Amino acid sequence: MKRFVQTLTSWGPVGVFFLAILDSAGVPLPAAVDALLIATAVVNPKAAMLSAFTAVLGSAIGCMILFYLARKGGEAYLERHTQSENAAKFSAWFQTYGLITVFVPCLLPIPMPLKVFVLSAGALGVKPLHFLAVVVAARIPRYFGLAWLGMQLGHDAGTWIKSHVVHLCAFAVVLALALYLAVKLTARESRSPIRP
Question: Between the N and C ends of the chain, which has fewer C-beta atoms within 10 Å?
Answer without folding.
Answer: C
